[in-house]
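Notebook entry, structure prediction.
Reason for the run: the old model in the group folder had no record of what sequence produced it. Starting over properly, with the input documented here first.
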Amino acid sequence: MNVAIPSEPLFGEEDRRIDAILDAERFNSKSVYNVPGYKPVRTELSHAPVRVTGTLPADLTGVYLRNGTNVQFDPTHIRSHAFAGAGMIHQIQIAAGAATYSNFYIRTPRFEFEREAGREVFVDFSDIAGGGRAAFDKIRLLEEKVRKGLIPPFSPYELTPASTSVRYHSGRLYCLQEQGYAFVLDVRSDAGRLVLDGRGRLETWEGEWEGPFSAHPRFDPATGDMYNLSLGSGGVLAGLVSQGLRHSQAQVHRFDEETGSMGWLHDFFLTENHLVFADISVRSDPGGLLGEDGSVFRFDAGHRMRWGVLPRDFRAGDTVQWFTTEQPGMVWHVINAWERTRADGSTEIVLYSPCFGSYPSSVPIHTPEEPPAQVKTWVLDLGSGRVTDERLLIDHGYERPSLNLGHVGAPSRYCYLLDEHGDGYMGKGVLKYDLFDEKEIAYLDYGDMYGGEALFVPRAEPRSEDDGYLLDLLMADDRADLIVIDARTMTETARLHLPQRVPFGVHASWLDRDDLAALGVS
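New structure, fully documented this time:
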């Protein structure tokens, strides 16, 4: 995308005044994010050879993709944060015991415009989570630049950096970040290799999609249908994409003055008949930029977290059934949930998720300033509308769970939890946990490297729920490895040594042979 910059200067005295107040250089030098793991990489590689130690499983053939932020400018004019910066995909393709590595910026309209401008232009997450009055003034200045024609009239949803996750559905790859539209990558094949360069397009299904797209859509294991819950238009929007087409969308909840607006809706549960999401105790208010913390986010200890339940076949006008818990709380990522029948014949839903008991307004995710999450379980009685069980399972800082995705919405024994209880940066190891017996099974320490998410990949012909591998991209100051773990024994089987370091990041996806064939790669 080539974007013409207007002849009138894009940046002026007011920009310099705001930059001086935000003072990104000084702020970043003292920031908790000022560690080597959060430094960007600027070299984009395409299918560079990867050295392998150990033995790659013969049935592990496919492509690993991991998304994350990567600031594209030096010097930068934005304050450091895990959510700040452009999106970058890191790709490892594995076949016949060998592997290659590629990485590329996600070339969204925002990315292309800022690249032409030579610096960051738009509001970033670190602005709204602590920028205060300067961020407020920056927003107003951008509105003025749109009126003058200095910048395009992008909608908030068109300004996505698409930097949180990457998911496959029905022959397409979606780069996702929950404040904006989905971004679909252009795909081509070259001698059996998946070739991506970050180019693509925003997906609005010919303008029929309303609001942003979730960073964590949920997929029906049987049909591949992709469910979405997101915040937009003053409430909660539910959506369904089936076989690549927009099937349905409806607003299922509106915010009001009494309850206020939840800070975010990052992840949710899919069960046999329902969608379940958390109304977290973090509240959102744009006026907070002018408050003491200078953030639109505020943890309200008086707002007990509640779970919202709605039917999977949602319709406009449906109301959410609310289940209020005993404590305030905040959820980033959930594990799994399923329905079961009580002795009296009524239905209940059992939920498993890490939960934070409090959360700072600066949203210092993946740092020592982030409090530890605790793994909990809740049981929702659909008949009485009550939470009949609410218990702590693990009093330790585990987060970013994964499971065998073929068991989403159904009883699943095993989950895999990232250990964030060390120094707070990313994951220092992975725990295999038994949800049925509520006990720890095995732990694998990552040593001197940090993991992002232990992604479960089933074997080609699995014989049990845990018959597969965990893949995690491990990061250090000067190197990166993709580790392959036998999920049954929790032992390392292979390690792929990448040709360059990778910045801290989290969410990944695996493309198997069938996925690659649907993408035209064979």
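Summary: Residues 84 and 124 are 6 Å apart (CA to CA).
The old model has been moved to the deprecated folder.
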